[in-house]
Amino acid sequence: MDSILQIDNLTVSFDGFKAVNKVNTGIEKGEIRFFIGPNGAGKTTLLDAICGRVKPQSGQVMFFDVDVTRYSEHEIVNIGIGRKFQVPSVFTNMTVYENMELAVVKDRSLYSSMFHSLKKEQIERIEDILVTIGLYEKRFNTPIALSHGEKQWLEIGMLLAQEPKLMLLDEPVAGMGRAETDKTGELLKKIAQDCTIIVVEHDMEFVRDYASKVTVLHEGAILDEGSVYDVQNNQKVIDVYLGRGGERDA
Ligand SMILES: Nc1ncnc2c1ncn2[C@@H]1O[C@H](COP(=O)(O)OP(=O)(O)OP(=O)(O)O)[C@@H](O)[C@H]1O
């Protein structure tokens, strides 16, 4: 199998506290990998280390043959790792379509001058993505008119516009009902045909339905890794997380 991301011996410290502690894992191309675990387990910090938001104390994060721990956040976006945060950060004073235009033009400082001169392939890409995320009909609405789920899909679409090879999503279905959650899962399956995905998630039903593989973190370290079935039946995982009904963000 082709490994797209290889994390080796990664440790992230905050004033001596190891939020991520000697983590080793490899993500294969096309996976939808879920990071799960109790609050404070280090899931978000691990995403932060992959996208360059925090610098590790030690270890490597090899994306193809590049150690991204040596790169800035901005450079990491440019080499193909996109990150979506928990709270949607779409521009509410612009239409859905304009948000997509902004996303497709990688250098945002050029946006105003390029507004009317998107290339044909950029326009086609925007339209394709709008269809994929189910917002083509709503492209001239502002995000205020969108549901919570639709705003999340727009943001995922904005990430896709930058043509990432790896997408990092932090609790993408938080606050969604079941129907929107399932639609998001189907969207991720579609995206994973071209772009590997890592998801931090507490919604175990979502994890069960859509994970290729699950990494369970506890106190900064990997407690278990494997299929949903395997980790669900691991007594240690049940004791520290699943048996407590999982936990949501405070
Ligand atoms: N910038 C920071 N400075 C100091 N401590 C931090 C910082 N960021 C995270 N931590 C600590 O690192 C630990 C791991 O936090 P992290 O947010 O990665 O956990 P998590 O598994 O994502 O939890 P949750 O499910 O609640 O989002 C926590 O104890 C947290 O308080």
Description:
This protein has 250 residues and is α/β, with parallel strands linked by helices. The chain has 2 domains: 1-80 and 165-250, Rossmann fold (3-Layer(aba) Sandwich); 88-163, no CATH class. It is 34% helix and 25% strand. It is built from 10 helices and 10 strands. It has helices spanning 43-50, 73-78, 96-104, 111-114, 120-132, 148-161, 178-191, 204-210, 228-232, 235-240; strands at residues 3-14, 17-28, 32-36, 58-63, 66-67, 81-84, 166-170, 196-200, 213-218, 221-226. The strands form 2 sheets. The protein has a 6-stranded mixed β-sheet with strand order 6-7-8-3-9-10, with helices on both faces. The mean pLDDT is 91. Bound molecules: adenosine-5'-triphosphate. Adenosine-5'-triphosphate binds at residues 14, 19, 37, 39-45, 249.
Question: What key attributes describe this structure?
Answer:
four-stranded antiparallel β-sheet; Urea ABC transporter, ATPase protein UrtD; ABC_transptr_urea_ATP-bd_UrtD; alpha/beta; AAA+_ATPase; 250 residues; ATP hydrolysis activity; ATP-binding; six-stranded mixed β-sheet; 2 domains
